Amino acid sequence: MTVLYILLALVVLLIMITVHEFGHYCAGKILGFKINEFAIGFGPAIYKRKNKKTDEQFSVRVLPLGGFCAFEGEDEDGNEKPGAFNTMPAWKRLIVLLAGVSFNFLFGVLTAAIYLLVSGFSTPKVSSNMEISNFKTNDIIIAVDGKNLEAYRNFSELVSGFAQDEEFTVTINRDGKIMDIVTAKHKFPSFYFVSNQSVFEGKIFRNGEAINLNNFMNEIMRFSTSTETTGEGGTAGTGAALKAYFADITKDAEGKVFYSDEEIEKLVSDGNIVYVKEGVSLGIVFTNVAQKYGFFEALVKAWPFCFYLCGLIITSFAGLFTGAVALKDAGGTVTAIAQIAEISKQGIIYFLLLLPLLAMNLAVFNILPIPALDGARAVFVLIELIFRKPVPRKIEGIIHTVGLFLLLGLVVILDLNHFFFASTFLLL
User: Fold this and answer.
1) Under a CB-based contact definition with an 8 Å cutoff, are residues 126 and 135 in contact?
2) Which DSSP helix (H) or strand (E) runs through 69?
3) Residue 2 to residue 8: CA distance in whole angstroms
4) Which of 99, 110, 351, 410 gets the most CB atoms within 10 Å of its CB?
5) What local confidence, expressed as pLDDT, does residue 23 receive?
6) CA torsion sign, 127 to 133 to 139 to 140?
7) What is the chain's mean pLDDT, rounded?
8) Averaged over 91-120, what is the pLDDT?
9) Beta bridge partners of residue 40, listed in sequence order
């Protein structure tokens, strides 16, 4: 099975690169550039076919780790053949150079729309709350200060920017009615909350009568733990007061107690009841409710979703220089293939998310002004447009050649570094 996932990863990576090169090809054809070859893969050709009318060659090569679109006279001066790359106007060359990135982005939008259509997004539904929170059980949260929750904008992120006691508006769906409530984050004492309702089904009584599970969850949450005896380090202990509370509410009509002290301890240690330390919060506990996008809505939402992914990628890339991202977490082509294979194993939703993420990665990476990449080539064309004179092709060619070798060397080093640390971790 692992081999199949690796093959799938290779196919995905090859599709991404082919889309990029196809962008160059389409722009070149439309603008009248002469194209010598469009190749999928590197190395010796295993399939070739030449178009007799245009003299263009299409080839599939043995190494499925890239591809290229070869233009006539791309890296040389003095080639006066019709449609030679460097004889074309600078603005046309700029469009051709940026077309690969543009196609990656458009492909990302298309695959993002498919992902959003299938996966949808999640909105919080209040399962229990403190009395002063202004929320009620079963409230579904729709927006914060007018910003709707989306696949690229979750509730926790939206409320994280507000300070303690700072009021803001939350739009909710309460029993089918859309309404706004004003709330704020407060400092609450430590508390318990029920994370798994099912284990208490049919076991919660007061004076022999069954208690509504929602009421029970709210009671547990409002049950202050400030006087509780917690475990070592104040982590997830179960105090005598909580045990007494359970003893009182879990007797059925026949007086049967469903939970012993040891069983209550286990409820907490197993995570069915969670202990939360004192802190600043909205005073609610929620579960996520799935929401679905329609086809056209998913297509529209795919654009901001892709910009959101680009932001994450840029932040991660910048983190390599600031230390926020460890160098051992970065990798080259081999690492990418391994990670694509690993993520694909987790299911169709993760695989569908992977496609726009990879497309945006290629778009962002190739637009960077690094020698040998489209971004750097575009910079040279911009210099030509500004100063009305190109940088000598020989100098530009040397810069791109050196940049290419340095880039390939960096990719190999990152892969070796990544797998060295991974192997060390496994050995430990």
Assistant:
1) yes
2) strand 57-71
3) 10
4) 99
5) 96
6) negative
7) 82
8) 95
9) 60, 67
* Confidence (pTM): 0.77
Q: Which residues are CB-contacts of 135 (< 8 A; sequence separation ≥ 6)?
A: 126, 129, 172, 181, 183, 282, 283, 284
The first and second tokens of residue 390, run together, are: 């190109």
pLDDT tens-place string over residues 365-400: 899 988 888 999 999 999 999 988 888 888 888 888
- State mean pLDDT over 339-343: 76
Q: Which amino acid is at 53?
A: K
The answer for residues whose C-beta is within 8 angstroms of residue 177's C-beta and 6 or more apart is: none
pLDDT of residue 328: 62
| Segment 198-252, tens digit of pLDDT | 888 878 887 778 888 878 877 777 665 544 444 443 334 456 667 777 777 777 7
Distance CA 93, CA 84 (A): 11
Q: In the chain, what percentage of residues exceed pLDDT 90?
A: 33
According to DSSP, the residues that pair with 21 across neighbouring strands are: none
* Nearest Cα residue to 201 out of 243, 157, 250: 250
Evaluate if residue 196 carries a pLDDT over 90. Answer: no
C-alpha dihedral, 203 to 204 to 207 to 208, nearest 10°: -30
The two structure tokens encoding residue 63 = 């190494």
Of 354, 343, 282, give the one whose Cα is nearest residue 130.
282
- Residues 6 or more apart whose CB falls under 8 angstroms from that of 268 comprise 192, 236, 237, 238, 274, 275
Nearest to 272 by CA among 180, 359, 192: 192
The encoded tokens of residue 410 equal 């960096």
